[in-house]
Amino acid sequence: MRFHILPTAADIHEQVADQFCKLLSEQPFSKLGLATGSTPIGIYTSLVRRFRAGEVSFRNATSFNLDEYVGISEDHPESYHSYMDSKLFQHIDLAPGSSYLPNGNATDLQEECSRYDNLLRDAGRIDLQLVGIGHNGHIGFNEPGRSLRSGTHLVKLDESTRQANARFFDRIEDVPTQALTMGMDTILKARTVLLVVTGADKAATVHRALTGPIETECPASLLQLHPDLHVYMDVEAGLHF
Ligand code: GLP
């Protein structure tokens, strides 16, 4: 586990974007694991700027996202499809058909989970996986509980997660109650995992996750088992380290 505690979130955005650019210049055919939420937005902004400056190309890369809500359309402004399009995909040269997200509108959600797992399996290991952390220790939408699932699966979102994400929706009733998420096994199999955490409100969560017991009640604690985990925190999030 390597810790990078940086003065500001902007410093994190640049250093994490550096890691993506370095990988893509060395291995243009890389498989990228992408995340949503407010934390990675600055990273995507930086990647778009670098692409426009001709410093990086995604032409030969493939991307897989961690998760998607169930029950809102792909073109809903808060769907993760819309998020990825507006923050990154529509601004870069990732080839059409090379970016994958689970389809939260599939008629058969179990079949959709198998389809996504098959895509991931056929692609092979993700080279660089970006993850954020929820206040309750979730990764992707792997919520705390008595057990965790290894592959892509349907989850019922915690009330605390819905409350946390309510800021993106008009009303709490509009926040989906379910989602599809990549499982912990897929995340842990990535060659390198970048955990990005900013803000004082996540300080206790990330400290518990990375120094406390490895337990399903804190899914992010399983990241302690990863052989190449890089943790990027601003000073506020890194308060207890
Ligand atoms: C969401 C996403 C996660 C993300 C987390 C934290 O629920 N599914 O991938 O890490 O919330 O989001 P934020 O960065 O907005 O705090």
From TrEMBL:
PROSITE patterns: GLC_GALNAC_ISOMERASE (PS01161). GO terms for biological process: carbohydrate metabolic process; glucosamine catabolic process; N-acetylglucosamine catabolic process; N-acetylneuraminate catabolic process. It is an enzyme of class 3 (hydrolase). It catalyses: alpha-D-glucosamine 6-phosphate + H2O = beta-D-fructose 6-phosphate + NH4(+). The active site is at residues 67, 136, 138, 143. GO terms for cellular component: cytoplasm. Pfam families: Glucosamine_iso (PF01182). The keyword Lipid metabolism does not apply. Residues 9-224 form the Glucosamine/galactosamine-6-phosphate isomerase domain. Pathway: Amino-sugar metabolism; N-acetylneuraminate degradation; D-fructose 6-phosphate from N-acetylneuraminate: step 5/5. It comes from the Bacteria. PANTHER family: GLUCOSAMINE-6-PHOSPHATE ISOMERASE. This is Glucosamine-6-phosphate deaminase. It comes from Cohnella abietis.
